[in-house]
Amino acid sequence: MPVQTRQPRTQMLIGGEWIEAGGRSTFPTYDPATGKVLAELVEATPEDVDAAVRAATEAFGAWADLLPAARARLLLRVADLVEQHADELARLETTDQGQPLAISGGFSVPMVVNQFRYHAGWATKLTGITVDVSVPDVDYRTRREPLGVCGLITPWNFPLMLLSFKLAPALATGNTVVIKPAEQTSLTTIRLAELCLEAGIPAGVVNVVTGGGTVGKALVDHRGVAKISFTGSTEVGREIGAAAGRALKRVSLELGGKAPSVVAADADIDAAVAGNLMGGLLNSGQVCAAYTRFYVARPRAEEFVDKLAAGAGSQVLGHGLDSSTQLGPLVSAEQVSQVDRYVQIGRDEGATLVTGGSPADGDGFFYRPTVFTDVTDSMRIAREEIFGPVLSVIPYEDEDELDLVARANDTEYGLAAVIWSGDVKVANRLARRIRAGSVYINMPPLLDAAAAWGGVKASGLGRENGWDAIEAFTEVKSIWTAL
């Protein structure tokens, strides 16, 4: 099995300087496939967070005033460097997070490249408007301007890719940033920051502070931060949203999900099974948009369950650097415990376990892909986000579309949903009525730098990617001129 050859950098980045631990506390990051410590990272102090915000503040004026074409060239240079170091970054992501190399190298890192190239294009295309106001002898126009210092707080499931959703548009629009990666998976964030410096992005424009929740809270509460962009749990997102509201600072939240997958009686069952396996087990189910509760028409339910269980049970578990691996580990021992607790809850509440249902033997944080049937809408495994490889099949009788939509919408979440049907009219009627930020028809959950991403209800506020990301990192200024 291939191994990492480059020792990962573990320091923080503040004002262009790499900060060693010195007298600060440190914390370990693990290879979740082996449970072994990969490195020790620095636990930032409140003074470190303050220093990072001050560095970003000092860098803001020159960066915001840089010619848009110059900013675009620097972002394109970052994209080129990520592409040149793609194999290194993918292996580092796999080793620190656990996702198979086919995901880190085939999906995550290419998405980072695409994000920087796509948003580099926007740097030269930010426009305002002119309006004929009903005031005599006045010229009125608007400018779209950067916000200032933005705090970017990223999760542990797709650390590098989801950072790029925030970092690329923030930089393209002239903001400076302080990044706080998840403590479980900080290594690729540090490496990307290093590549930003190598690309020529000025010192202080990109800063990284590492550590746990107290570091994130210090960043959220800092008066010098104009905006917080957070991806993570709904519980933490509520706290961040409340704090941002009290401070009257901008906030974007991409939070949890419990995506319904509707499988109609006329669906291509083989395609639905394949797509739901990908949508439900991608990254071992550690995906906020994971397909996790399947509403399957009763006449097709038995066939669907049999094929879904067979596919889930045949998944090859192993280290993500092993080319034969289909399913990697969960990110931590705590995550294994959480998944196992929900599986026991499912059993206790009367769901029928078809396959899986236990941690895998051996080292690392592995959990066997698990399928339940005879699940009801009220069961906790059908209502609460598990963030692991647990799939719940809920057979439904022939009922009208409005009843089915009501059941699919009966959740606090609204990030994603999917519909499997041979009737495009029915599928699109359902898609219009389901409350979710993204609805997929006859396909697994895909993403693109140009496509808006985000949720409704407890799945978040705001959107990432596309023009929506540009709006999220800018504000509109009105300029009035007497003629």
TrEMBL record:
Cross-referenced Pfam families: Aldedh (PF00171)
Residue span(s) of domain Aldehyde dehydrogenase: 18-479
Active-site annotation: 254
Record-linked InterPro entries: Ald_DH/histidinol_DH (IPR016161), Ald_DH_C (IPR016163), Ald_DH_CS_CYS (IPR016160), Ald_DH_CS_GLU (IPR029510), Ald_DH_N (IPR016162), Aldehyde_DH_dom (IPR015590)
Keyword annotations from UniProtKB, A to Z: Oxidoreductase
The family this protein is said to belong to: Belongs to the aldehyde dehydrogenase family.
Protein name per UniProt: Aldehyde dehydrogenase DhaS
